[in-house]
Design goal:
Keywords: Membrane, Transmembrane, Transmembrane helix. One of its GO terms (cellular component) is plasma membrane. One of its GO terms (biological process) is carbohydrate transport. InterPro entries: MFS_2, MFS_trans_sf. By secondary structure, this protein is an all-alpha fold. The protein has helices at about 10, 20-50, 55-60, 65-85, 90-95, 100-105, 115-145, 150-180, 185-220, 230-240, 240-270, 275-285, 285-300, 305-320, 330-360, 365-395, 410-420, 425-435, 440-449. It has one domain (about 15-449): MFS general substrate transporter like domains (Growth Hormone, Chain: A, Up-down Bundle). It contains 19 helices and no strands. α6 runs antiparallel to α7 (about 115-145), α7 (about 115-145) runs antiparallel to α16 and α8 (about 150-180) packs antiparallel against α12 (about 275-285). It starts with 8 loop residues before the first helix and ends with a helix.
Length: about 450
């Protein structure tokens, strides 16, 4: 059967209990650390602690993602095979729980390594970490599509996830810079940060595995074998609604990770106060704790598509304010970052709740193939964002350094710091908005639920 999911309402309108919802959402705490900390600190770690030139640092973060684009859909296929054979995807989730080891190793660069050798060390463990992230995230995100729940309940499920994910992003985004040593960050500080956060990641991810099992027990769907390999991938990519949603999400993911990578540079070189990194991160992430219920209500009233377009537009406007820099005044700049944070909350909740809508509407292959492509897109955006910012720094002539050094940056580099943090994200988010407008499933999906 193709087209919309037209099973009787009784089969799709189950209300999920809060206990299993909370347990499932707990897994996002660990995912939040992996999504946030490398995106926030890894480029800065390379250029300002390990003396890696910005062009090489950008490549170090980008090239490992090439493997992700190819391997994540394969992980999705394996998740569908597990679902068909065993009735769940638990084994992949447990394999993904090795991610904290790769995370700790990522920042444990041996003391004698700087420049290209240090970049190679980071690249190796970044590849390993991204693959383990896929092993957890792909089956984890397939869960909503596996359940017999409707349009609004899928949004509610992802709202729970979003709140917990926000807690993970906020906590790690605030704590990580402090653990590295703040203004006096050092190699030892980064190693300490990696180990401490890895322990928390592991605990949260194990709770998520148990919570996912409880959630599946509360509203289990039918087990489907689907078809695998390139045939499944072609089916997903031929899905028009999925293509436009994925394309828009790639632009959104690239933009948000670009901003995240630029925070330490903007705080140090534009605002001239490295300690403001934590303030900007808090302003970017904390609003989600307050506004996620609002996005949920708005999506129920006007639909996910209209709400998402509004979030994208608000992000673009806030970014333009940041391009003004110091003349705008610190309160205005922090408020602009908060606007980005409000929009970011919508862009985390809504696309992730639209993904299972697309999967249930297609009914052509297993959910894992779709989520495999989705996580590959997410990973690619997480690399393209820092790479784009690194290119801005390279064009501006940014001077790399080791920890403790404070080289004088040319005026062009300082301009690149500002425009890369404000103007470039505005342009990229407008592209996301134009792509998202091509998605047309939402109104039909609402009517069918």
């Amino acid at each position: 059967m193709t087209g919309l999911d037209r099973r009787p309402a009784a089969a799709t309108d189950a209300t999920l209990p809060r206990g299993p919802l909370a347990g499932f959402a707990a897994g996002s705490l660990g995912m939040g650390v992996w999504v946030t900390v490398p995106g926030l600190l890894l480029l800065y770690f390379l250029t300002d602690v390990l003396a890696v030139g910005p062009w090489l640092a950008g490549l170090t973060l980008l090239l490992p993602k090439v493997a992700d684009v190819l391997l994540h859909p394969w992980v999705g296929h394996r998740a569908d095979v597990e679902q068909a054979r065993r009735g769940d995807r638990r084994r992949l989730l447990l394999l993904g729980c090795a991610l904290p080891v790769a995370f700790a190793a990522l920042f444990a660069v041996p003391g004698g390594l700087t420049g290209a050798p240090a970049a190679a060390w980071v690249a190796v463990f970044f590849v390993a970490g991204n693959l383990l992230f896929a092993a957890y995230q792909v089956p984890y995100l397939a869960t909503p599509a596996d359940l017999r729940i409707g349009y609004d309940e899928r949004t509610r499920l992802m709202a729970f996830r979003m709140v917990v994910l926000t807690l993970g992003i906020l906590a790690s985004g605030l704590v990580a810079p402090l653990l590295t040593g703040g203004d006096a960050a050092s190699r030892g500080g980064y190693q300490r940060m990696g180990v401490v956060l890895a322990v928390g990641m592991l605990a949260a991810m194990l709770v998520g595995v148990a919570g996912t099992a409880r959630l599946r027990g509360a509203a289990a769907g039918a087990t489907t074998a689907g078809h695998g390999g390139w045939r499944a991938l072609r089916t997903a990519l031929r899905d028009r609604q999925f293509r436009w949603l994925v394309a828009a999400y790639l632009a959104m993911s690239t933009t948000t990770h670009l901003v995240l990578a630029g925070v330490p540079y903007y705080a140090e070189y534009e605002l001239r106060a490295p300690g403001l990194t934590t303030v900007l991160v808090a302003a970017f992430v904390a609003p989600a704790l307050l506004v996620t219920p609002g996005w949920l209500l708005l999506a129920r009233r006007v639909g996910k598509q209209r709400a998402l377009l509004g979030a994208q537009g608000a992000f673009a406007v806030g970014s333009l304010v940041l391009a003004v820099g110091r003349p705008a005044g610190l309160p205005v700049l922090v408020a602009a970052v908060a606007v980005l944070g409000v929009a970011f909350a919508g862009m985390q909740l809504l696309p992730f709740s639209m993904l299972p809508d697309v999967i249930r509407a297609a009914r052509a292959t297993g959910a894992g193939t779709y989520t495999g492509v989705w996580t590959a897109t997410e990973a690619l955006g997480a690399a393209l964002g820092p790479y784009a910012y690194a290119l801005c720094l390279t064009v501006g002539g940014f001077v790399a350094s080791t920890a403790g050094e404070s080289p004088t940056q040319p005026d062009a580099a300082l301009a690149a710091v500002r425009y890369g943090f404000g103007l470039l994200p505005a342009v990229a988010m407008l592209a996301a908005l134009l792509l998202q407008r091509r998605y047309t499933l939402d109104s039909t999906a609402r009517a069918a639920s």
